[in-house]
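Posting for a labmate who doesn't have an account.
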Amino acid sequence: MKNNILKSYFYWTYSRGSFHYDVMVTLILAFIFITPRLWDYGDKPPRIGGPAQPIQVQGDGVKGLILTVPASEVAMPAEVSDFNMRRALKRAMQPVTGDAVTISRWELTRDASGNPVAWKVWAHH
């Protein structure tokens, strides 16, 4: 009995408007709308216009990069943790470095009034 039900779900043999048809449609819609919140598929909308201020890149003398990212380009996470900061900095640097960069460390530079100016990020491929 269970084998027949599974087979009929797999081959979609139920007629439209039946209970089993509605269950399948509900499961498909739940998958479409719920999984993007639970799972990062890696797709990102294109960024139009690039950064408002340029990101400066220089070598660190070894095999890495030192990037200066304007503070206005980094969307600060609601919960500031090591993981969330790395992700926010990677998103801001992505137009310049792409996805294949690993962040070693970072520090925030401030002006004389204490306002954030830029993030200095050490990264490597």
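Reply:
Got it, the structure tokens are right above this. The longest strand covers residues 102-110.
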